[in-house]
Amino acid sequence: MHARTIPDGIEHLEALAHGLLDVTTSRSSKWVRMPKPMSYYLDAPSISTDGEKHGQFIADAIASADSIMDFTGIDIVGVVLDQAPRRFPLGIAFIGDDYWSFEADGHKMTDGFTLMHPIFNIDTVVAHEILHNLGLVDLYDGSVNGIASPDPRDRFVGEFGTMGNSRGHSPELFGWEQWILDWIPDDDVACVTTGSQEITLSAVSTTSGTRLAFVPLGANRFAAFEVRAQHGLDNPPQSGVLPYVVSPDTPTAQGPIRIPPTRDPLVMDPLQVGSQWVMEGVAVEVLSGSGTSYRVRVHTEVPKAIAPGPVQGLRSSPSARGIAVTWSAPLARGWAEISGYEYRVGTGRWTSTSKTAVTVKAIKRGSTARVQVRAINEVGSGAVTSISLARK
Fold it and tell me: Quick check: 315 and 326 in contact, CB under 8 A?
């Protein structure tokens, strides 16, 4: 089982570190029997999340393996369960201290983790648990069960980050996490404290350039910006600039990092070129870029509101009731919330709607009509986007 879990997990962990971490492993040569039945350690259906009971489990595993394994020089102890009859969750980390530590072969150890059936072949889980031992916290919502689809546990960071959804599309660590681990040096972090600043951001999956920009929000909270690209371990739906808020004092699994949502529990995809975004009194606009490099302008104060830009993705399709016309919000929202939309057919009057879809009925067979759509914010109406409809 070790061969089916640990090596791939270590390889994934080292890939996350981009060459800045070299992990050496040692393993027992055979399975060992615990001194107590599993029911003693279980907090059904899992290994107990109670720190002392989990610590006792690892301590007993160390004692049981001490005769066949040399623990000298070991920093983190991982216990891999055999294929037990119960169905366990993925894994759990143990963070020790001077009060709770392990000792074997005259060597003291404070950290460990347990991997549980059926996590075999899920290498990101191994990396996730070891990253706990290195000091990172859970980014998923630990207050809910992952039963529905989309998974409500993903409402804070979606499928970004190994400490969020460890099997998501973009497991690279957040720039903030890499900075904490010293895998991004201070020189590659931009801190914007006043005014506006233009910054060229490199993707967090790269190894050079500015990979994190942040603005202090007060009360030990920060607005952060980074590039997520279809590069390295990441494969987001689209490359671009990802905004998020960091609250380091927020406990694990309660949202210490939060990406703005599109609708609960979905978080937004990275921002594209031309996008403007406002987040807790801080603003960012994506000026240019593609692939792994984007140019942004970060504002510590939101610029004065202006009319919004054109709506995106205007398209039409036949429907049972006529012709359906759909669109999405403009990239440039004019530094204000979009309050609604207006549309008109031909030279008719403008009609208001709060939706991003309408059905056009009054087009005669064999004729065409032009439909125009514009977004509205507190300043007024934005640029017009049009599409021609034809009914055969």
Answer: yes
Which residue's structure tokens are 């960091």? 246
Question: 251-283 burial by CB neighbour count: b if 16+ within 10 A, else e?
Answer: eebebbbbbeeeeebebbbbbbbebbbbbeebb
- H or E segment to which residue 132 belongs: helix 123-133
pLDDT of 1 = 57
Region of residue 240 (phi > 0: left; psi between -120 and 50: alpha; otherwise: beta): left
β partners of residue 138: none
Least confident range from 13-22, 108-117, 144-153, 169-178: namely 144-153
What is the rounded distance in angstroms from the CA atom of residue 231 to the CA atom of residue 172?
A: 10
- The β-bridge relationship of strands 322-328 and 312-319 is antiparallel
Instruction: Read off the pLDDT of residues 269-305 as tens digits, 9 standing for 90 and up.
Output: 999 999 999 999 999 999 999 999 999 999 999 999 9
Tokens at 238, concatenated: 């689209």
Categorize the per-residue pLDDT at 88 as very low, low, confident or very high, splitting at 50, 70 and 90.
very low
Between CA 216 and CA 142 the distance in angstroms is: 26
**Cα 57 to Cα 54, 62, 112, 120, distances in angstroms:** 5, 9, 10, 20
- 283 vs 89: CA distance, rounded Å: 40
Q: What angle do CA 66, 93, 179 make, to 5 degrees?
A: 120
Name the token pair of 43: 């907090």
Percentages helix, strand, coil for the chain (3-state, rounded to 5) are: 15, 35, 50
| Two structure tokens written together for 22 | 């070299």
